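Forwarding the complex inputs:
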Amino acid sequence: MSTVGKALTLLDRLSQLNTEPGLTDVARICDLDKATARRLLVELEKHGFVEQDPETRKYRIGAAPVRLARVREARYPFLRVAIPFVKDLAGTSEETVHLSEFAGGQLSTIHVEDSPRAHRVIVDVGTHLPFHATASGLAYLAFSGRQQIETVLSHSLKSFTDYTVTDPSVFRKMLAETAERGFSISNQGLEIGVVSTAAPICSPSGQPIGAIAIAAPLARASVAVLKGFGASVADTAKRISEKYYGSERPSGT
Amino acid sequence: MSTVGKALTLLDRLSQLNTEPGLTDVARICDLDKATARRLLVELEKHGFVEQDPETRKYRIGAAPVRLARVREARYPFLRVAIPFVKDLAGTSEETVHLSEFAGGQLSTIHVEDSPRAHRVIVDVGTHLPFHATASGLAYLAFSGRQQIETVLSHSLKSFTDYTVTDPSVFRKMLAETAERGFSISNQGLEIGVVSTAAPICSPSGQPIGAIAIAAPLARASVAVLKGFGASVADTAKRISEKYYGSERPSGT
DNA sequence: CGCATATGGTTCATATATTGAACCCATGCT
DNA sequence: AGCATGGGTTCAATATATGAACCATATGCG
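Prediction (whole assembly, four chains):
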């Protein structure tokens, strides 16, 4: 792997921890030599991507990503555009609605609007969504290129519940159904008792950039209800995309 | 320079542009060979730090920094902590107040609260603040280690206005005054007609992490007024730091 | 038209940055 | 004292990055 790749992987790993690691921890977690880990950390620190606590000598994510994120959002205010739609959908469906974005080979939750009900599904911002076990992943993948699909299928599909689809051929069939239907349905693929439906948010070229999903407790979501949600979610996804790309064309000539 | 450094510099340059560059532009801007630029871009793209528009083939900042920034902010909610104080100060001073953070060797504006008055100073979020020509920079540097000061002084001090201090020995004197006084004063160092005062926000170890500043039109800010602002700004900086580090000790032991 | 120029992208011998085992130096524990 | 652990460093060996030259395609333009 390239050095840059290693550095970025390090950054990613660091971001996934919930404790601040020391040098040795970093090396172990990233499967790097201590010297290598250190060089990468120093380099990342120079640029503000990590910072070392001057007292504990532990490392943490630095402030540079915050600046980059601001720039990104200023130019591409995805969240700003999408959040009102997510809220709206959460309001009408009365279920938890969450938004995810594809970045670095994975789909991650970037916003959640909770259901107003007491019995509701909880989704945390930042969660990675496996492609084969979530409605969001399914929706994203169903509208992605063949290559993306093959990449996902090149690894074995991890089982999370008894309902998780792990058979590639069954999974392919679900992708086809999703693509035709316009939205995906996941039946307890990641967690028992939770069903959800999702649709991809696509760029004008048709390339998905993320997904929006409604997650409901199984007890409340009949197939009919879920299909209704599916239609709403697909509609919302389309409207987000239109709003996001529609008015503000990336300043090309 | 290390490859990682090049990649991160590329990312930084990319973030400073206000147009989406193509491969050749990137190579030129970063002073890299086209092939090198491409490899770095590909690597950065793999991890979501840049993305290439599938239609125009131009490159832009990707979504990964947004995720990292969320993680960073979740653990270190600097903005969330600081913004109320900034608002408060803007309210009482009736002048533009801005907050900056040190990252990647530079001080950048991360939040601005505008003065409610019609005649006011405008500061853009994301602006880099030269150490020698702004109150924020002066404040930051005055409380930094000797090494940081020498690093800054190792480059020649660029002049922005007729008032910009470019003489290192004068600058050192100002640093000493600032350190003693507890806040800095900049007299039109970056822009004619603008005076400002700033104080560093420091970690418990005394290491500055950023600065908070009040910027006012010269016409309105007598020396007395400015000194009053300076005291407020220093007080606010101290309170931000206490709030930021005080309650939530970095989970050490 | 057809030539010139610009762009995105690729190749491969060469040069250079990266690697990691072994090392040093604190600190803390027994 | 003796040992263990963690941060940090060194330097010869080697994997990795580099860039001049190369395509392919697109866009002027006389």
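Residues 3, 32-36, 39 of chain A lie near DNA strand C (CB under 10 Å from a C1').
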